[in-house]
Design brief:
By secondary structure, the chain is an alpha+beta fold. The chain is 18% helix and 18% strand. The chain has a 5-stranded mixed beta sheet with strand order 3-2-1-4-5, with no helix packed on it. The relative contact order is 0.16. This is Secreted protein.
């Protein structure tokens, strides 16, 4: 019976050592700005409500055509302090801080639930 407990203890110690080693040897990942966030993409077209951004937040764009844009926080926008115009979100926002607007999914099937991105939309799929 003693050899059983000896083997059990040795196995537990070996598993614990392997777990600690895997945590210690995990490579660090670089982060851009941990507070930078972006939400979108949204689309605005002529005839829609123009007051979504007023004052200094009002985008400097052609109000006679449609625009795809992102709300950006922590990274200055390219058409106003917090609006980034373009199909792709601004660079410098970590993937875990990119979020999509929720989508009306219907009753039974939801093709795009919104929420966090799982693949970075700034890079083409392989």
């Amino acid at each position: 019976m003693t050899s059983f407990f000896t083997r059990l203890t040795a196995a537990a110690l070996l598993a614990g050592a392997a777990a600690l080693t895997s945590l210690a040897l995990t490579p660090a990942t670089a982060q851009a700005d941990p507070d930078a966030r972006a939400t979108g993409p949204f689309t605005w077209c002529p005839g829609q409500y123009e007051g979504f951004a007023s004052g200094s937040e009002r985008p400097n764009w052609d109000w006679n055509t449609c625009h795809t844009y992102w709300w950006s926080y922590g990274i200055p926008g390219n058409v106003s302090p917090s609006v980034w115009e373009g199909a792709l979100p601004p660079a410098g926002v970590p993937l875990e801080n990119l979020s999509r607007p929720p989508v009306n999914c219907g009753l039974f099937y939801c093709q795009d639930p919104g929420g966090r991105y799982t693949v970075d939309p700034r890079f083409p799929a392989p």
